[in-house]
Prior knowledge:
Elements: H1 2-5, H2 8-26, H3 32-35, H4 39-59, H5 67-94, E1 116-118, E2 124-126, H6 127-132, E3 137-138, E4 143-144
Antiparallel strand pairs: 1-2, 3-4
Helix pairs in contact: 2-4, 2-5, 4-5
Amino acid sequence: MILRRLNWPLWVGFLLSLAAFLSYFLFFVRFPLTRDFPWANLGLFALSVALVVAGIRRAFAGDVPHPTRSRIVGSIVATLSLVTVGLFVFSVFVMARWLPAAHGAPQVGQTAPDFTLADTQNKPVSLSELLNAAGPEDAATSQKSRGVLLVFYRGYW
């Protein structure tokens, strides 16, 4: 029987680790839920590691037809799988922190420079217009409150 001779947990685990690595960069990075913390890929990697461990145990068992070849191939494939997992963890959790700091970006509490953008009706609106617009009066100080809330979010441009 071919399945008896083929170490399928080892090969499925190896292919699953490659699929988990590639799927993050090709598919899961598009969605904030899986881009910010790659929980789906980490689950796939956990499953692939479990399959590779089962495949290694099977490769080093005494009932394989070619024990030396099975052990060598099993060790190489398991090493490649673990290198794939390590490369993913390193690239997502370590290399992502190596991005340069935005030195020109406004800091928290800093006054934003004046700018003009189009609103939803395509009418230009400037920050200075919004700051000078009359707001509701504060009953305690009888002064008009002035303020603009700027919200920055990551989106697709």
